[in-house]
Amino acid sequence: MTQESVDPPALGRLAELDRRWVPSGTVEFDVTRPNKMGYQPGLDGLRAISVIAVILYHAGLPWMQGGFFGVEVFFVVSGYLITSLLLDERAQNNRVSLGQFWLRRARRLLPALFTMLVAVALWASLFGTAEQQSTLKRDLPWSILYVSNWGQILGKAPYFASVDPPLLRHLWSLAVEEQWYLIWPLVFVGAMAVGAGRLRSRGVAFAAASLSLMVLMYVLHATTPASGTISLLGHQANRTNFMYLSTVTRASGLLLGASCAFVWRPWRNSRPMRKFGTRLDPIGAAAVTLLVCIMSVAALTDGYVYQWLLAVVSVLSMVAIAVVVHPDASGFRAIMGWRPLVEIGRRSYGLYLWHWPIFVFGHVYHSGSYPRLVLGGLATVAVSEACYRYVETPIRQGVLRRWLRDQRAAIGGDRARRVRVTAAAVSAVAVVVVGLGLFYASVDRFDPAAGGTDASFVVPVGSAPSVQSTPASNVAATTTTLATLPRRLTVVGDSQAHSLVINKPAGLETTFTVSDGSVEGCGVYDTGTVVSARTSFRRAFGNCVGWAAKWGAAASAARAQVALVVIGAWDVFDLKLADRTLVFATPEADAYYLAQLQTGIDALKAAGAHVALLEVACMRPKDVKGAGVPALPERGDDARTGHVNDLLRTAAAADPTHVSFVTGPTEWCHDAAISADLGYRWDGVHVFKPGANLIFETIAPALLRIPVPAD
């Protein structure tokens, strides 16, 4: 029986059958093909696999370190599904109602989003840390407007930074999709209006466009200068942030799904191809199996992710989609249409929305803890299900529209009731506006390193340079003229350097003009991953590309005479690279470290600064509230810090004219009353004001004896 001979009631019955669940182990069987795509349970099955992978990845399970690829699967599914719906609407009505399309998307997405934002804002205001409140203040406007991906790209906090993650960081992917929903229908209508070419040719064009974007990602990754930044709207955006978060680079998966919708609409074929369908089943199974394998092993910040693996994931996703929507791929459709999978997929949007803030509040994020994952997962399921049942579904089914209609009918000519309703609406808006105003007025920018009791810097007797200065043992003997104070000092390095600068003691400005050239979360590595005995901790250095150039730029901008290098927090670990693991203190690891360090030294020398390598302090890490990094045992190993200091001395000895090793306070290693006092170092690693004062008073003589050229 052909599609044209089926009467409308029969079509309705077929559509209803298509919406029913297929019990596990059974096969869907249709004698005809409908004109429209209809509901495809298998697509929800794919969504379920994707959201589960993302949740397990965010929980820090080591066997799902590539679960972030689940987002790419979402993109390809969205591109295919939305384009198919647009094509169906155009085929049925010979036009596309953009207003209705956007209204449907708004009803589907906005209620759950705004509910989550209100809940998170209330929770953070009442129970959140100062850091969470500060990042929420920064991220909330971007999130409301569905442009949070660009907020993260243009902001100063890298997506891959090691600090506690912001409560709304996960909204970047939803922002990409929402921007797609706004722009793509316009492109679709325009493309369909130009000429009378076949749909297939347009699909090929969009496939070419998506492949071009994939090539663009490779080119950006491979050819961006060593600074690791991209200029956007006058801002220097981190390259890794841009590659991973931007709508431009992530649109390839959406476009690939859209192109597939143009050329692959098997439900419109009037002749069943069950023999062909038996060949599709293993293809679909192989695609999903490969996707799961990739999600298990891929590393987020490795270069190959952007060069080719992301494109492979997109293509595999497209293959899985193409098979699962084919009516004759009965086996694969039955597997992906398994009811528990489909139920999860139908709720995937809510699960994704809610799991992240719950994981952050509950310290599940990257914990690697199965008990925490279970508790956080149960809380996520409960909250997202409540939102799905009582917010998402009713509004999607028009309850708000019906309520407004009933209110208008009830008010009628009742002026008093109209006034009361208007007053209630204005009051509700006022409460929200005033609440946001108070929140923004009361929350300051958070910096965990800022604080402690202030101290006054006193220049140690005899530390000022003389006309014929006698250099320290680690400073090259050079005759120099009396230096003009204050001496220009740029402090570079990781977050320890930042803590030292912002906690500098009062009165220091008469001796040193200090500028901050630190790079948050970055030592001297720009690739690889930390290997720690605390296996739940993960830190990749992909966002640190260009750290040396940033050091040099900071020293140059400040016209620094001396550049103080403060590192060590990230230098005491084994380093896992793409092809090998560098075991700490082995000759291979030492050579790699010295080569990386030399890159930074060369950048500072090129800026005209003398390089002073500060001795790495013996660290006493503690698990304290607000610390973005837990107490890692390697940092508390004095033998490891001692070995790093040996490497620093080696680097200084190789170029004594331009590089010095500066000895720090002995108290960090030999005075337990100071080294373990959180008043000196708030987490045992980063200094407060007393610790900064101790360091500056100790190292000032050596810094002032360094010969520098006269201005």
UniProtKB/TrEMBL annotation:
Pfam family, any one: Acyl_transf_3
InterPro entries: Acyl_transf_3_dom (IPR002656), Acyltransferase_3 (IPR050879), SGNH_hydro_sf (IPR036514)
Primary location class: membrane
This protein's UniProt keywords: Acyltransferase, Cell membrane, Membrane, Transferase, Transmembrane, Transmembrane helix
Domain Acyltransferase residues, every copy: 42-384
Regions crossing the membrane: 67-88, 109-130, 179-197, 204-222, 242-264, 276-299, 305-327, 421-441
Gene3D superfamilies: SGNH hydrolase
GO biological process: lipopolysaccharide biosynthetic process
Chain segments annotated as coiled-coil in the UniProt record: none
Organism the protein comes from: freshwater metagenome
Entry GO terms, CC: plasma membrane
Protein's membrane topology: Multi-pass membrane protein
MF-aspect GO terms: acyltransferase activity, transferring groups other than amino-acyl groups
Compartments reported by the entry: Cell membrane
Protein name listed in UniProt: Unannotated protein
